[in-house]
Amino acid sequence: HLERSRSRQPSLCIAMGSEPAAKRPRVSSASGFSADTDLQVVVEDEVFHVHSLVLMLVSPVFKNMLCGNLVESQEGKITLHEKDKEEFRVFLTAIMPASTFELTAANVEFLVRWTDEYQVEGLKTKCEEFLMTEEPASVASLEFASKFHLERLQKRCSEEIKRDVKKYMDELIRLGPKLSAEVLEELWPCLCQAAAVDPSEMPPVEQVRNMWPFVVNSIKSGRDELVELHKELRTWPSSMAYLLPASHQANAKASAWLQRKLDGLKIT
């Protein structure tokens, strides 16, 4: 009875919504269960012996490879081209059940790339949380978050940069022409504001990249000129009081009027 009930159990691929692949030979114990690996993953010149179940449970991409009528499912072997074997070793360790693997600054970025490509959402979320708490906001982080769809990190970096774009000028000068269209469009209004010009619709992205030196120079010169103007305006109330006659308190009244105007412009 036990053997018959086992034979009626659906395969993992059917349970996960795919047709079963051709059966692969495997070593089984007398009980019918096995903890042996059943899949080879080739990365560079190394063959990794892994459990297909682990890959299929964490990654719909691997599941489609193994549960579809693809050569990988028939041969029991996956070859990952243009991948780093040491990165895969770390990735495999990180997705194993009950793993005590720890994220670090040295591994988190390449793990984000792996989890984005193979849609390993659980590990990807952990990577994003690590970056949110351990890495400061930066233009490079904003571009990285945009490229690999880390929405919370992207929002945080964008808000920090918009709050004080001048603080990130060195990065903007260096990385600006390499930024994606999405990031440039996101930052364009605050770049216009930093250059002391009215925000307008961003030109085509290639034009923005080509004229990037002029963009950053406008921001730098616009800010410098604005600072100098503020310094000069601060001296006007006292100069007016000195130049106008004191009769009928004309000097004091004019100075107070001008000071109120400057206060309205938030110039101190």
Summed over residues and divided by their number, the pLDDT gives a mean of 81
Instruction: Report the major sheet.
Output: 3 strands, mixed
Q: What is the strand tally?
A: 3
- Uncertain segments of ≥5 residues (pLDDT<50)? 1-10
What is the strand content? 5-15%
Rg, rounded, reads: 31 Å
Ends apart, CA distance between termini: 88 Å
Helical content band: 55-70%
Strand order of the largest sheet: 2-1-3
Summed up, the helix count is 16
Approximate shape: elongated
Topology order in helix (H) and strand (E) letters: HHEEHHHEHHHHHHHHHHH
| Structure class | mainly alpha
Tell me about this structure:
With 268 residues, the chain is mainly alpha-helical. It contains 16 helices and three strands. It has a three-stranded mixed β-sheet with strand order 2-1-3. The longest helix has 23 residues. The chain is elongated and about 110 Å long. The chain starts with a helix and ends with a helix. The N terminus is likely disordered.
